[in-house]
Design a protein that fits this description.
The complex is a heterodimer of chains A (about 120) and B (about 110).
Chain A lengths: L4 E3 L2 E4 L5 E6 L6 E7 L5 E8 L2 E4 L8 E4 L6 E5 L8 E8 L10 E2 L3 E5 L1
Parallel strand pairs in A: 2-11
Antiparallel strand pairs in A: 1-3, 3-8, 4-5, 4-9, 5-6, 7-8, 9-10, 9-11
Chain B lengths: L2 E5 L2 E5 L4 E8 L5 E7 L5 E7 L5 E3 L5 E5 L4 E6 L8 E8 L8 E2 L3 E6 L1
Parallel strand pairs in B: 2-11
Antiparallel strand pairs in B: 1-3, 3-8, 4-5, 4-9, 6-7, 7-8, 9-10, 9-11
Classes of the chains: A mainly beta (about 120), B mainly beta (about 110).
Chain lengths: ~120, ~110
């Protein structure tokens, strides 16, 4: 009964490169969230996705950031032309919305991006 | 729209003392409320949740929280702190709608003094 799986756990990129973070939700979960956590700060909502559909992307930066959750395969958070300010922990969470679940979300262990 | 406010970014208690972490929420519809715990360099783990059933909710590790609609609060308590409780604690709010994202508070760092 695997939980939310994120990879890579740690990623180092040079300024200007692209970073791709992957997230496989818990079995049976249809919805995925991405959050960003900067050092000594709380969790900032980025995007909320359902398979093949973006439900809410109000927290995504307007440029360089994109997310998808295809019909098959993991959800991908893509950061183009990374800058030092993108260095953070990126957490994925998944849920199966419904009355019984109370919309509870379960987190992965995070992907730590370092931009050098 | 929903929001959540955690009062006190850092709380320090002695081992064996009462733990009280405060959370107030704002929601235009009945909320679902959560407490999560985060240990260093790890993801968030669900402690407990309120989803409109019993107002006093018991969670893991001896924690509990009480939903008080009149005070719009969902404070987290534990009668006796243990050294292993030292961590970051996050309160979160959402609603019954599957289109409603989950919003987190800014977190409270709990330190335990020997």
């Amino acid at each position: 009964n695997a939980g939310v799986m994120q990879n890579p756990r740690h990623l180092v990129r040079r300024r200007g490169q692209e970073a791709r973070l992957r997230c496989s939700p818990m079995k049976g979960h249809s919805h995925v969230y991405w959050y960003r956590q900067l050092p000594e700060e709380g969790l900032k909502f980025m995007v909320y996705l359902q398979k093949e559909n973006i439900i809410d992307e109000s927290g995504m930066p307007k440029e360089r950031f994109s997310a998808e959750f295809p019909k098959e395969g993991p959800s991908i958070l893509r950061i183009q032309q990374v800058v030092r300010g993108d260095s953070a922990a990126y957490f994925c969470a998944s849920s199966m919305p419904g009355q019984d679940s109370g919309n509870t979300i379960y987190f992965g262990e995070g992907s730590w991006l370092t931009v050098v | 729209a929903q929001s959540v406010t955690q009062l006190g970014s850092h709380v320090s208690v002695s081992e064996g003392a009462l733990v009280l972490l405060r959370c107030n929420y704002s929601s235009s519809v009945p909320p679902y409320l959560f407490w999560y715990v985060q240990y260093p360099n790890q993801g968030l783990q669900l402690l407990l949740k309120y989803t409109s059933a019993a107002t006093l909710v018991k969670g893991i590790n001896g924690f509990e929280a009480e939903f008080k609609k009149s005070e719009t609060s969902f404070h987290l308590t534990k009668p006796s702190a243990h050294m292993s409780d030292a961590a970051e604690y996050f309160c979160a709010v959402t609603t019954y709608s599957s289109a409603s994202k989950i919003i987190f508070g800014s977190g409270t760092r709990l330190s335990i003094r020997p």
